[in-house]
Amino acid sequence: MSNKKNIAIGSDPQPPNLGGDVEHYILSHIEPEPDYLYRLWRATNIYMLHGRMASGHLQGRLLKMLVHMIRPKRILEVGTFSGYSALCMAEGLEEGGKVYTFEINDEQEDFTRPWIEGSPMADKVEFIIGDAIKEAPKLGLEFDMAFIDGDKRTYVETYEMVLNILKPGGFILADNTLWDGHVTDPAYDRDHQTLGIRRFNDHIAQDNRVEQVILPLRDGLTLIRKIAP
């Protein structure tokens, strides 16, 4: 008698819980986290109230790899936080490439700017304090790639802004799209951030201008490609 678990036709087996031993195994079998980024991650978790918002080793290496694969010249990031993800994406850029990263919280600047400007990637990152929805279009630039990781309540508005200044065939990465599982939990039906993520996911699923896939990595990462007209 087979000891394999029964799996419904057309379904995928459930992924392992990425915690404990499995997470340690993964991190020990991927590109090591650069020392500067480890120190930034540690400082973020010590001094920032919500330190876990930083991308961290696994997602950071994925962001770098995706930049290598997509080969963008210009990346727009909405939501800098401590600068970890911006620096990871900058690592993957070719000569002349740049990350334009917006942080709406001006109280974040004193922590973040020194880490960005003191990094080996400083010349590839432009750190801007301001509301990206209003300010990014004023740059007058077209982007090849964007990373959305700002206010979850305005994800749809951010997405629409980004799509307008993203070149055809360009990519958008949207973070936290599973929101710690709250997207399927009725207990969070009145939580505004959860509702913002749900609204975004529904919006993307019905948008025929793009192709998309959700990766169950950390808190959920959605990869979106703008279809050429």
TrEMBL record:
GO terms for molecular function: O-methyltransferase activity; S-adenosylmethionine-dependent methyltransferase activity. Gene3D superfamilies: Vaccinia Virus protein VP39. PROSITE patterns: SAM_OMT_I (PS51682). Pfam families: Methyltransf_3 (PF01596). The keyword Transferase applies. Keywords: Methyltransferase, S-adenosyl-L-methionine, Transferase. One of its GO terms (biological process) is methylation. The keyword S-adenosyl-L-methionine applies. This is Predicted O-methyltransferase YrrM.
